[in-house]
Amino acid sequence: MIKFKTTSAEMTEHFGEALGRRLAAGDVIALDGDLGAGKTCLTRGLAAGLGATSFVSSPTFTIVNEYEGGRFMMFHFDTYRLEDEDDFINAGLDEYFDRGGVCVIEWSEVIKGILPKGTIHFRITGTGDERFFEAGQDDDGDDDRDSMSERIAEAVREAGIETL
Ligand SMILES: Nc1ncnc2c1ncn2[C@@H]1O[C@H](COP(=O)(O)OP(=O)(O)O)[C@@H](O)[C@H]1O
Ligand SMILES: [Mg+2]
Fold it and tell me: Per the CB 3.0–4.6 Å rule, which of 36, 42, 85, 160 could disulfide with 16?
C-alpha cells in the first residue's frame, strides 16, 4: 500500500500523467472516492501519459468513453449509475477487460466482484485542495510483470510528491 497527498488538481494530474507513461496493455485501474474527490482529474492525467489527445470528461451518462491516439486504447468507465456487477455484465461492458487497452473505472466498488486479478486500486479522500491517495494492487500472481507498486512509487517520485 502506497500513501501520498496532493495539494492541487494540477499535482494530481501530473501524478496521473507520470503513471500513465508506465501503464501496460491490460492494466485495470479502479478509482474510488466521493463526488469531487478527483477521480476524473487523475484519469485526465493517465490519458495524457498514455499520449491520448482528446479531453477527458466524466462518462457518467454513457458509462464508458473510449480514447484513442495513445500507446493503448483507454476505456474510461463511470459506474455511478449502475446497480451492481450484473448491470455491468448485462451491458456487455466486461468485454472491455479483454480488449488489450487500459481500463480506468470510477466508482469501481459497484463492480468489485468482477474486477480482474491485478487490478490497481486508488482510494481518494480529502477536502479543500488536499487529497489523500491510498494505492494498492490485487495480487495477480504474475511475478514476471513489473510490480505496479513499483511503478506507482516511481510516478509519485517523478511528480515530485512525497509519500506519507
Ligand atoms: N488535490 C486535488 N486533486 C484533484 N482535484 C482537486 C484537488 N484539489 C482540488 N481539486 C478539485 O476537485 C475537483 C475534482 O473533480 P473530479 O476529478 O471531477 O472528481 P470526481 O471524478 O472524483 O467526481 C475538481 O474541481 C478539482 O479542481
Ligand atoms: Mg468523475
Answer: 42
Residue 163 lies in a domain: no
Q: How many independent structural domains does the chain possess? A: 1
Residue nearest to atom 25 of ligand 1 (CA): 36
Expressed in angstroms and rounded, the spacing between residue 151 Cα and the centre of ligand 2 is 23
> What integer pLDDT is reported at residue 101 of this predicted model?
97
Lining ligand 1 with CB less than 6 A are: 6-9, 11-12, 33, 35-41, 58, 106, 129, 131
Instruction: Judge whether 140 and 149 are in contact, CB under 8 Å.
Output: no
CATH classification at residue 25? 3.40.50.300
Nearest ligand atom owner, CA of 15: 1
For residue 5, give the C-alpha cell.
497527498
- Per-residue pLDDT of 51-87, as tens digits, reads 998 888 887 778 999 999 999 999 999 999 999 999 9
Whether the Cβ atoms of residue 2 and residue 153 lie closer than 8 Å to each other: yes
32 is a domain residue: yes
Residue 128 lies in a domain: yes
Which backbone phi and psi does 24 adopt, to 5 degrees? -120, 160
Answer yes or no: is 9 within a domain.
yes
Structure confidence at residue 142 (pLDDT)? 65
